[in-house]
């Protein structure tokens, strides 16, 4: 999560960069650590980003000396609006993953709130996060923890050239690039927090600026950055995701449910991150009020229906990013289909699946004939990740939940058929 502070130039992907020494840590690639503060040339963007972040930290130090209740409540209100609604709900779950739909006016309002968090404009933030999921904990991950805890926490923000070599392609955010509102925020990004600072000063003087721009922004910074760093180092793994993501309860409390990070990497398109009843997920609780069966359906099968509207767009930017012909992307799909067939046959033989689940599979094929061609026809890396997600899904269902899943899937199928999908 997170993005560059300042609007950086589009360096693009540099395929001719010097090869780096590779190590292995489990199933995760590890390259020779990047020198963040020394041994490299700092660009004007890096110095600008470091200056803004350092300045805000210094401003927050005035907090104890300019504290009053009015300033505190202004800061707290902005903290919730920009952090919970702006970053977590809008930038992350809505714009990055399309986990749910909002009316356009509300989508734009929450995105504007996220811009006031001073973590970058939506296009940059979403681009970086999508590349994080695409190449999680590898040499192409923009803020990989294999570079070290502090690099994944904050250091990557000061190395724009390396980040944009990894995630500079605009093709991955065509859904936002094609909307005038997000282009407007990209072109005028820095003006909006400046305007907010002026308004705060006019309303409450220096104390409002200290708390509303200093303390509030710095707290939001580190809460967001802990998801990148702490949630790839400390905690437990409930799912085999093939990466270092962890479920971390104290980060989840601080970050409105984002700390259930291993759950998120297992079901990245799901609007819900806290999957167990005791896993508090404030963002999810604010974004939906579904029944138990609908909740389980949304959790388990998000990519089948909630992502259907954006599947073609997702496929387009993946094709553009790889530069491969469309027919080559089908090679991974063939392997995935074979692996899925073997997995289903094995589970059926072991008695995990029953006739109702087979009916569910048939219903999926009949209701979504283009699902495989839209979502699964991507290169081998994505196919492997989707296969792991399928294993996670099947293990979470269990024989006792098959009937409720079938009921939920049939209801969703009928609803989408009535809607004309």
Commentary on this structure:
- The protein has 421 residues and is mostly helical.
- It folds into 2 domains: 44-294, no CATH class; 356-420.
- The chain is built from 20 helices and 2 strands.
- The protein has helices at residues 44-60, 69-96, 104-115, 122-134, 149-153, 160-167, 174-177, 180-188, 191-229, 249-254, 261-266, 282-287, 292-300, 302-305, 311-322, 326-349, 355-367, 371-376, 380-397, 402-418; strands at 22-25, 28-31.
- The protein has a two-stranded antiparallel sheet.
- A hairpin with a 2-residue loop joins strand 1 (22-25) and strand 2 (28-31).
- 40% of the residues are buried.
Task: Show the helix and strand layout.
Layout: E1 22-25, E2 28-31, H1 44-60, H2 69-96, H3 104-115, H4 122-134, H5 149-153, H6 160-167, H7 174-177, H8 180-188, H9 191-229, H10 249-254, H11 261-266, H12 282-287, H13 292-300, H14 302-305, H15 311-322, H16 326-349, H17 355-367, H18 371-376, H19 380-397, H20 402-418
Helix pairs in contact: 1-9, 2-3, 2-4, 2-9, 13-20, 16-19, 17-20
Key structural traits:
single chain, 421 residues, mainly alpha, 2 domains, two-stranded antiparallel ribbon, 20 helices, 2 strands, 2% strand, oxidoreductase activity, acting on paired donors, with oxidation of a pair of donors resulting in the reduction of molecular oxygen to two molecules of water, oxidoreductase, Acyl-CoA_DS, Fatty acid desaturase domain-containing protein
């Amino acid at each position: 999560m997170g993005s560059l502070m300042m609007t950086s130039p589009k360096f693009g992907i540099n395929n001719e960069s010097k090869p780096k020494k590779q190590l292995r840590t489990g199933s995760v690639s590890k390259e020779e650590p990047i020198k963040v503060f020394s041994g490299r040339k700092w660009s004007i963007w890096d110095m600008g980003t470091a200056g803004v972040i350092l300045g805000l930290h210094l401003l927050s130090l005035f907090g104890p000396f300019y504290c009053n209740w009015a300033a505190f409540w202004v800061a707290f209100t902005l903290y919730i609006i920009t952090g919970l609604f702006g970053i977590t709900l809008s930038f992350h779950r809505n714009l990055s993953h399309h986990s749910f739909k909002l009316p356009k006016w509300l989508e734009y309002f929450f995105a504007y709130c996220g811009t006031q968090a001073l973590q970058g404009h939506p296009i940059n933030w979403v681009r970086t996060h999508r590349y994080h999921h695409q190449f999680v904990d590898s040499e192409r991950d923009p803020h990989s923890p294999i570079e070290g805890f502090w690099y994944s926490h904050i250091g990557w923000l000061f190395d724009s050239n390396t980040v944009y070599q990894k995630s500079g392609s605009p093709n991955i955010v065509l859904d936002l690039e094609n909307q005038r509102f997000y282009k407007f925020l990209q072109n005028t990004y820095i003006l909006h927090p400046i305007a907010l600072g002026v308004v705060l000063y006019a309303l409450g003087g220096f104390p409002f600026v200290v708390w509303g721009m200093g303390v509030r922004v710095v707290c939001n910074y580190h809460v967001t950055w802990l998801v990148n760093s702490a949630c790839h180092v400390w905690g437990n793994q409930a799912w085999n995701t093939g990466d270092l993501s962890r479920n971390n309860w104290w980060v989840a409390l601080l970050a409105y449910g984002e700390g259930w990070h291993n759950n998120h990497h297992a079901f990245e398109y799901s609007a819900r991150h806290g999957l167990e009843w005791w896993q508090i997920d404030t963002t999810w609780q604010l974004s939906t009020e579904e029944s138990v069966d609908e909740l389980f359906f949304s959790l388990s099968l998000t990519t089948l229906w909630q992502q259907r509207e954006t599947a073609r767009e997702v496929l387009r930017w993946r094709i553009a990013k790889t530069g491969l012909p469309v027919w080559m992307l089908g090679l991974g799909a063939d392997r995935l289909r074979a692996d899925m067939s073997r997995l289903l046959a094995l589970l059926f033989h072991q008695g995990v699946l029953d006739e109702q689940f087979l009916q569910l599979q048939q219903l999926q094929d009949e209701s979504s004939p283009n699902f495989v061609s839209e979502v699964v026809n991507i290169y081998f890396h994505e196919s492997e990740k989707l296969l792991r997600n399928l294993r996670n899904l099947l293990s979470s269902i269990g024989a006792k939940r098959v009937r409720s899943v079938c009921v939920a899937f049939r209801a969703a199928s009928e609803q989408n058929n009535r809607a004309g999908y």
